[in-house]
Amino acid sequence: ADSGDAELELSAVRHQPEELEELLARTKFSKKELQSLYRGFKNECPSGLVDEETFKLIYSQFFPQGDATAYAHFLFDAFDADGNGAICFQDFAVGLSVLLQGTVQQKLTWAFNLYDVNKDGCITKEEMLEIVRSIYDMLGRSTSPPPRDSAPTEHVEIFFQKMDRNGDGVVTFEEFLETCQQ
Fold it and tell me: Any idea where the EF-hand domain is (predicted)?
């Protein structure tokens, strides 16, 4: 078993430069930043992959006053670019690069994809309400003053009044982009 582990480690080391070069090309992180992010990622996820349950546990630590489970689910889906049920370091680095250093267009595309829960190219009120409720749940009742129970629905109605420009009950990417850029 030890020789197998050694082979696996050597294999990983041999493949690292290509992966690092690819990430340097796909992200706006420097080599040092990627190495630092990788150390933190491997520290939290020694296997190199994060499944949804682990992601929820890690993310919930940032919002102890509320329930971050539902929002973490949507965030996990947004980071899991290939939809394989796990976030690898590459998925994480590319997503984080967009959020932190992407263009306005890239950030808006990422946000749209987060809200487009079923990935059909448009956002419905139901999808938006799922996300907004999850955000309110994550923030918990510690906000002052505490939000009304109707706050998520009101938030979604305001969103749709601004975004659904043709009044068809869904927000397309073009509507989303146009409204956000204004």
Answer: 67-102, 103-138, 151-182
> Domain 29-102 falls in which CATH fold?
Recoverin; domain 1 (1.10.238)
CA distances in angstroms from 113 to 16, 24, 63, 104, 136, listed in the order given: 30, 24, 23, 14, 19
pTM of the model: 0.78
- Whole-angstrom distance, CA of residue 180 vs CA of residue 182: 5
Q: Which of 136, 126, 137 is nearest to 159 (CA)?
A: 126
Q: What angle, 0 to 180 degrees and rounded to 10, lies between the N-to-C axes of helices 104-115 and 173-181?
A: 130
pLDDT averages per 10-residue partition of the chain, 182 residues: 46 53 89 90 87 91 89 93 89 92 93 93 96 89 70 92 94 95 87
Ordered by start, the domain boundaries in the chain are: 29-102, 104-181
The rounded distance, in Å, linking the Cα atoms of 23 and 30 is 9
